[in-house]
Amino acid sequence: MNIPNKITISRILLIPIFIILLSVPFDWGAWNIGESELPISHFIAALIFIIASTTDWVDGYYARKYNLVTNLGKFLDPLADKLLVSAALILLIEIGLAPAWVVIIIISREFAVTGLRLVAAGEGIVLAAGKMGKLKTATQMVAIAALLLHNFPFSFIGFPFATVMLYIALFFTVLSGYDYFAKNWHVMRDSK
C-alpha cells in the first residue's frame, strides 16, 4: 500500500461525501450566475469532485516519477475513476443537468472495458489505461465539473460550455472504448 495507492483510495472515500451533497436537499441558498442559479451545495460538490479528480493526476504522476507503479494501482486507479464518474453522472441525471442517454452510453462503455479487464486478469494480464482512455477521463471530468457548476463562468456570456464538453466527453468515451477493444481483442479471442 504505497502513497499513490493511498491517494487513489482517498479519491474513493470522497465519493460518499460527494453523493450526500447532491442527494440530500440542503437549503444553503444559491448564487445567481448569468441566466441560471448555482446552489451552494452543488458548488461544494463540484469542489469535492474537482479535488477527487485532481488526485487522479497526482497519484499517477507520483507513481511514475518514483517508480511506484503496481498491479494494485493499475486496478484501483481506473476503478476509482469509474466509481467517481458514474456516481457523478447518475446524480447529474437526478438533478436534471445531464441527459440519461448520454450517461447510459458512457457507463456502458465503462462496464464493457471493465469486463475486458476482468477477462485479461483471469489470463494473468493487467491492462493499464492508455492515452486515449486518459483523454476520455479528462474530458469527462471537465464536463462533469462544468455541469456541477451550472456552466459557470460561461453562463455569463451564454456559451453552453458544459453541454459542449459533455458531448466531447461522449465522443472520446466511444472512441477510446473502440480503441481499447481494438488493441486488446486478442485477450477475448485467446481466453480459455
UniProtKB/TrEMBL annotation:
<keyword id="KW-0443">Lipid metabolism</keyword>
<dbReference type="GO" id="GO:0005886">
    <property type="term" value="C:plasma membrane"/>
</dbReference>
<dbReference type="InterPro" id="IPR048254">
    <property type="entry name" value="CDP_ALCOHOL_P_TRANSF_CS"/>
</dbReference>
<dbReference type="InterPro" id="IPR004570">
    <property type="entry name" value="Phosphatidylglycerol_P_synth"/>
</dbReference>
<keyword id="KW-1003">Cell membrane</keyword>
<dbReference type="InterPro" id="IPR050324">
    <property type="entry name" value="CDP-alcohol_PTase-I"/>
</dbReference>
<comment type="pathway">
    <text>Phospholipid metabolism; phosphatidylglycerol biosynthesis; phosphatidylglycerol from CDP-diacylglycerol: step 1/2.</text>
</comment>
<comment type="pathway">
    <text>Lipid metabolism.</text>
</comment>
<keyword id="KW-1133">Transmembrane helix</keyword>
<keyword id="KW-0594">Phospholipid biosynthesis</keyword>
<feature type="transmembrane region" description="Helical">
    <location>
        <begin position="12"/>
        <end position="31"/>
    </location>
</feature>
<dbReference type="GO" id="GO:0008444">
    <property type="term" value="F:CDP-diacylglycerol-glycerol-3-phosphate 3-phosphatidyltransferase activity"/>
</dbReference>
<keyword id="KW-0472">Membrane</keyword>
<dbReference type="InterPro" id="IPR000462">
    <property type="entry name" value="CDP-OH_P_trans"/>
</dbReference>
<protein>
    <recommendedName>
        <fullName>CDP-diacylglycerol--glycerol-3-phosphate 3-phosphatidyltransferase</fullName>
        <ecNumber>2.7.8.5</ecNumber>
    </recommendedName>
</protein>
<keyword id="KW-1208">Phospholipid metabolism</keyword>
<dbReference type="GO" id="GO:0006655">
    <property type="term" value="P:phosphatidylglycerol biosynthetic process"/>
</dbReference>
<keyword id="KW-0808">Transferase</keyword>
<feature type="transmembrane region" description="Helical">
    <location>
        <begin position="83"/>
        <end position="105"/>
    </location>
</feature>
<feature type="transmembrane region" description="Helical">
    <location>
        <begin position="165"/>
        <end position="182"/>
    </location>
</feature>
<feature type="transmembrane region" description="Helical">
    <location>
        <begin position="43"/>
        <end position="62"/>
    </location>
</feature>
<keyword id="KW-0444">Lipid biosynthesis</keyword>
<keyword id="KW-0812">Transmembrane</keyword>
<comment type="similarity">
    <text>Belongs to the CDP-alcohol phosphatidyltransferase class-I family.</text>
</comment>
<comment type="function">
    <text>This protein catalyzes the committed step to the synthesis of the acidic phospholipids.</text>
</comment>
<dbReference type="Pfam" id="PF01066">
    <property type="entry name" value="CDP-OH_P_transf"/>
</dbReference>
<dbReference type="InterPro" id="IPR043130">
    <property type="entry name" value="CDP-OH_PTrfase_TM_dom"/>
</dbReference>
